[in-house]
Design a protein that fits this description.
Length: 394
């Protein structure tokens, strides 16, 4: 039986070119990048090359890239670093209800330490209104953090428009409100440029773009006042202490370079597959709805809610046919609570529980999509006949 992987939003397989590039840095090129001898200078040069490769993917300059242990650390670094460095200027932070828990939990942490948090609602498609950001800004606002695209429903947020609102307020009031975006789901999948977006901070994770796990980056625009997240040595321009994960950073750099080379072609290939899956599911399963914006969404994301049955039951049945999908964020897969994102766009608990996320990637084929369309309607029919929520199926 062929195994079909449709959970690329959770993680991607590490590209074989990335693995090959990383290999020497485990046992052959093992010097500490902080050492002044040739062993250390060799690995330091490798890190700086990777920094250039990341800049080639998102823009900015090499001294604006700080390598981290992943997207969660990058998000925490951005929020806590800005909050504590600028608390003499204000204590108000604005975010949205559909952010990743790496942002929301961090905001909860900051709230307990005296910061005021405004959590903005979204519309039924999951969009944050730029007007709501403008209305939420106060003289005490120091940071706005809105994700570039949602990891569950795939909606791409109007980041450029929100940036204009913040820039206008900064210009009018002479303030310095920083703008952070969690771009973990977008970098490597749609065009991302920090200057075009107008952001001051941007989070990335390598394992979402065919790089290794355990490495990411935070873009920090020059002139941004931020406190180091880890304290100790002088690594990463005195912004992130700890001996660098050289193999991971090298792999991240190669993954970034490969993403630049293949972005347009991969989007062109993936979009028709995504649309075929959406169209087929809508046509062959009754009482089903697409979650997220119909057009302003990631090219590889399909999130649907199937009424009268549980998403977990569908996932287990799909897995029996070798099809791997998810019911939402992999980071909350152990929770019994319905997705906070689906509740935020107005879904009742019982419908939110019946949701599936299919996320496509480089290895996804048209045959894979056809297999899902052949098996899922039968699975739904079987489960609905067993469900107490419906009589005899729908």
């Amino acid at each position: 039986m062929k195994h079909i992987y449709l959970d690329y939003a959770a993680t991607t397989p590490t590209d074989e070119k990335v693995v090959a590039a990383m290999q020497p840095y485990f046992s052959e090129k093992y010097g500490n990048p902080s050492s002044i001898h040739s062993f250390g200078q060799e690995t330091k040069a490798a890190i700086e090359k990777a920094r250039e490769q990341v800049v080639g993917l998102i823009g900015g300059s090499v001294d604006e890239i700080v390598f981290t242990s992943g997207g969660t650390e990058a998000d925490n670094f951005a929020l806590e670093g800005i909050a504590f460095a600028n608390q003499d200027k204000g204590n108000h932070i604005i975010t949205s209800v559909i952010e990743h828990h790496a942002v929301l939990k961090c905001c909860e942490f900051l709230k307990k330490r005296g910061f005021e948090i405004t959590v903005l609602p979204v519309d039924k498609s999951g969009l944050v209104s730029p007007e709501s950001v403008a209305n939420a800004i106060t003289p005490k606002t120091i940071l706005v953090s809105i994700m570039h695209a949602n990891n569950e429903i795939g909606t791409v947020e109007p980041i450029k428009e929100i940036a204009k609102v913040i820039k206008m307020r900064n210009s009018e009031c002479g303030s310095r409100i920083c703008f952070h975006t969690d771009a973990v789901q977008t970098v490597g999948h749609i065009p991302v440029n920090v200057d075009e977006l107008g952001v001051d901070l941007l989070s990335i994770s390598a394992h979402k773009l065919y790089g290794p796990k355990g490495v990411g980056a935070l873009y920090i625009r020059k002139g941004t006042r931020i406190m180091p997240f880890l304290h100790g040595g002088a690594q990463e321009h005195n912004r992130r202490a700890s001996t660098e994960n050289v193999p991971g950073i090298v792999g991240f750099g190669v993954a970034a370079e490969l993403a630049v080379q293949g972005l347009a072609e991969e989007t062109k290939r993936t979009l028709p597959l995504r649309d075929k899956l959406i169209k087929g599911l809508m046509a062959n399963i009754s009482d089903i709805q697409l979650n997220g914006h119909p057009t302003e969404r990631l090219p590889n994301n399909v999130n649907v809610s199937v009424k009268f049955i549980e998403g977990e039951s569908m996932l287990l049945n799909l897995d029996m046919f070798g099809i791997a999908a998810s019911s939402g964020s992999a980071c909350t897969s152990g929770s019994l609570d319905p997705s906070h994102v689906l509740l935020a766009i107005g879904l009742p608990h019982e419908i939110a529980h019946g949701s599936l996320r299919f996320s496509l990637g480089k290895q996804t084929t048209e045959e894979d999509i056809e297999k899902v369309l052949a098996e899922l309607p039968k699975i739904v029919e079987k489960l609905r006949k067993m469900s107490p929520l419906t009589k005899g199926g729908k």
